[in-house]
């Protein structure tokens, strides 16, 4: 069964550094998403991406964040200058259609020191 | 504005007894509703979804949920809890219009005791 994959599974970085989180969505899916989950809190929507552009974003997704689909398979989330409060689990998801089921990857645990 | 409320942050049941996890939403737009489960240190797994077909939806592992438009609810139930059901459960709602369209509830931690 096809699945969403994410790399790395864990990343530790210093405050102020740039990080890139990578995701490979399911191949026939057209919508891509990033979410984050701070430890002990709920899953929060960051951004959705369709047709090579951002379709929706939350107030969390500020200028420090960017997303890109650099080739036909990868979908990346870049944090330009990490802050301590960016420490969280980041989930990628993809779906065939906007209101259809989103399939989630296993997540990348980011720790900013 | 749209919102999703999971009324109970923690639910504790005995093995073999019924489970009820509550989810209510608030919106003037038509929702698509999902329940996801997250086991410790794992990703999110879809349990079931409602997208405007039958209001009673059956999912994996014996779970089901009923969409009640009049009550703006989509509660998750299971007739008989199993130890392996212990996890965190998230209600997730998408709306066909308006802002802030992709919304997770705050989650309900289900504990199953012997």
Quick summary of this structure?
The complex is a heterodimer of chains A (113) and B (114). Chain A is an all-beta fold and 113 residues long.
What percent of residues of chain B adopt helix (DSSP H or I)?
Answer: under 10%
Q: What is the average per-residue confidence, as pLDDT of chain A, rounded to a whole number?
A: 92
How far from one another are the termini of chain B? 42 Å
Specify the biggest β-sheet of chain A.
Answer: 7 strands, mixed
Task: Please report which band the strand proportion of chain B falls in: under 5%, 5-15%, 15-25%, 25-35%, 35-45% or over 45%.
Answer: over 45%
Give the oligomeric state of the chains in this entry, treating copies of one chain as homo and distinct chains as hetero: heterodimer
Gyration radius of chain A, rounded: 13 Å
In N-to-C order, the SSE pattern of chain A is EEEEEEEEEEE
Put simply, the count of helices of chain B is 0
The total beta strand count of chain B reads: 12
Tell me the series of helices and strands of chain B, N- to C-terminal.
EEEEEEEEEEEE
Largest sheet of chain B: 6 strands, mixed
The tally of strands of chain A reads: 11
Uncertain segments of chain B are none
Tertiary shape of chain A = globular
Task: Provide the descriptors you would attach to this structure in a database record.
heterodimer; A: 113 residues; mainly beta; 7-stranded mixed sheet; 4-stranded antiparallel sheet; 11 strands; 0% helix; B: 114 residues; 6-stranded mixed sheet; 12 strands; globular
Description:
The complex is a heterodimer of chains A (113) and B (114). Chain A has 113 residues and is an all-beta fold. Helices cover 0% and strands 50% of the residues of chain A. In chain A, strands 2, 4, 5, 6, 9, 10 and 11 form a seven-stranded mixed sheet that branches. A four-stranded antiparallel sheet of chain A has the order 1-3-8-7, with no helix packed on it. In chain A, a hairpin with a 6-residue loop joins strand 7 and strand 8 (75-79). Chain A is globular and about 35 Å long. In chain A, 35% of the residues are buried. The model of chain A has no long low-confidence stretch (mean pLDDT 92). With 114 residues, chain B is an all-beta fold. In chain B, 0% of the residues lie in helices and 54% in strands. Chain B has strands at residues 3-5, 10-14, 19-21, 24-26, 31-38, 44-50, 56-58, 64-68, 73-78, 87-95, 102-104, 108-113. In chain B, the strands form three sheets. In chain B, strands 2, 5, 6, 10, 11 and 12 form a six-stranded mixed sheet that branches. In chain B, strands 3-9-8-7 form a four-stranded antiparallel sheet, with no helix packed on it. In chain B, strand 7 (56-58) and strand 8 form a beta hairpin. The N and C termini of chain B lie far apart (42 Å). The model of chain B has no long low-confidence stretch (mean pLDDT 89).
């Amino acid at each position: 069964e096809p699945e969403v994959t994410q790399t790395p599974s864990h990343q530790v970085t210093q405050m102020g550094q740039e990080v890139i989180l990578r995701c490979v969505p399911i191949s026939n899916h057209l919508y891509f998403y990033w979410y984050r989950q701070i430890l002990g809190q709920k899953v929060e929507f960051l951004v959705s991406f369709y047709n090579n552009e951002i379709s929706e974003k939350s107030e969390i997704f500020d200028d420090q964040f960017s997303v890109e689909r650099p080739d036909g398979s990868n979908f990346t989330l870049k944090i330009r200058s990490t802050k301590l409060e960016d420490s969280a689990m980041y989930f990628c998801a993809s779906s065939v259609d906007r209101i259809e089921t989103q399939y989630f990857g296993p997540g990348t645990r980011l720790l900013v020191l | 504005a749209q919102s999703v409320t999971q009324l109970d942050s923690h639910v504790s049941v005995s093995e073999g007894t019924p489970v009820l996890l509550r989810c209510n939403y608030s919106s003037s737009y038509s929702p698509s509703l999902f329940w996801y489960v997250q086991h410790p240190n794992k990703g999110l797994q879809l349990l079931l979804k409602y997208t405007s077909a039958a209001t009673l939806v059956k999912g994996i592992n014996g779970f089901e949920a009923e969409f009640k438009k009049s009550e703006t609810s989509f509660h998750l139930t299971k007739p008989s809890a199993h130890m392996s059901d212990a996890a965190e459960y998230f209600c997730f709602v998408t709306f066909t219009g308006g802002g802030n369209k992709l919304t997770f509830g705050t989650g309900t931690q289900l504990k199953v005791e012997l």
